[in-house]
Amino acid sequence: MAPLAPRSGDAIFANVERVNAELFTLTYGAMVRQLLTDLEEVEEVNKQLDQMGYNIGIRLIDEFLAKSNVSRCVDFKESADVIAKVGFKMFLGITATVTNWDADGTSCSLVLEDNPLVDFVELPDTCQGLYYCNVLSGVIRGALEMVSMKTEVTWVRDMLRGDDAYELRVKLLKQVPEEYPYKDDE
Amino acid sequence: MRMFHVTSISYKRLLQDLFEVSEGCSSLEVLREWNRPLRTLSSQQDHKLMFGLLFSLKSFTAKMDPSSVEKGNLGVPQLPGQGCSFHSFSTNSYKLSLMETPSGIKIILVTNPKTGDLQESLKHIYSLYVEYVVKNPLYSPGTQIRCELLNTALDQYVKNV
């Protein structure tokens, strides 16, 4: 019998290598700052952060699977739960809440009360369009794509923009089955 | 679908072959071969055969599953999370153990038929893969794995099994 998926990431979080939270926050901040200088356009920075997140996500998924002992998730609901409870805990030390499911169970919201990326951050007037944590949405999109789920991840609420929490909307577009990669006549 | 594939030693009664397979690229690659005296096919054909074997066996095992009602059609690819998957099979001359991760990585060990359960070893190999391949900035996902450190680590691990 397959081991049951852990319901919380606490045990795993205790065992993984960690870095100092301030170092992490400030490094991320420095990176966003550099992107703003290099790319000039806030829109471009959002895109770049998302792409970076995606590239992280497609690798991070394997580390997640190897260390968390999570086996297959039966459906999207379970996947969302595992991301919120185990994934966020393992890599950021926080947990998210899954809410606002739509009727057919293909989109939901991940709400973060606490977000280590934004300590010490204030958006200046010139960067109001910036999604500072856009890297997170990219990570989730990339990681889910590797387990055959095409998703769309967008920010709904952002404390840096004056909302009361961080809310990510995750929408499942389609599930892609494994394909047979060889042609018959090859 | 991308596969890689490591082939290994036969210490007394140990591993002969280790394939690793994963999503994203179109061929199976041999990561490591330790002892494989008889090579009957070209390596490309070898990979195709291995892939075909796993692909069909998986769909057959899912079809024969007595515990699930929803079976789907034979040969139709399954969504992740659907169906069951097999862990190993043995013949009189070898045993093949497989671990498939939800991200599509397949790790295959071909060993002596008397070897016991290898799920733990496969998990360990997966963690080596994460450590040396996934975390290697010079490796771009979907390309062939050329990583000396992984090879060294694998060799060492296999020696100590």
Number of domains of chain A: 1
Look at the structure and give the CATH class of chain B: Alpha Beta
The biggest beta sheet of chain A is recorded as: 4 strands, antiparallel
Number of strands of chain B: 6
**Gyration radius of chain B, in Å:** 16 Å
Please estimate the helix content of chain B: 25-40%
Compute the number of helices of chain B.
3
Write down the overall geometry of chain A. Answer: globular
Q: What distance lies between the first and last C-alpha atoms of chain B, to the nearest angstrom? A: 29 Å
Low-confidence stretches of chain B: 1-17, 21-29
Q: What's the assembly state of these chains? A: heterodimer
Fraction in helix of chain A: 40-55%
Q: Name the CATH superfamily classification of chain A.
A: Trafficking protein particle complex subunit 3
The value of Rg of chain A in angstroms is: 17 Å
The stretches of 5 or more residues of chain A where confidence is low (pLDDT under 50) are none
Mean pLDDT value of chain B: 69
For the largest interface, the chains and their residue counts are:
A-B, 26 and 28 residues
| CATH topology term of chain A | Muramoyl-pentapeptide Carboxypeptidase, domain 2
Secondary-structure element string of chain A: HHHHEEHEE
Number of domains of chain B: 1
* N-end to C-end Cα span of chain A: 39 Å
Subunit structure (chain B): Part of the multisubunit transport protein particle (TRAPP) complex.
Family (chain B): Belongs to the TRAPP small subunits family. BET5 subfamily.
Pfam families (chain B): Sybindin
GO biological process, one term (chain B): endoplasmic reticulum to Golgi vesicle-mediated transport
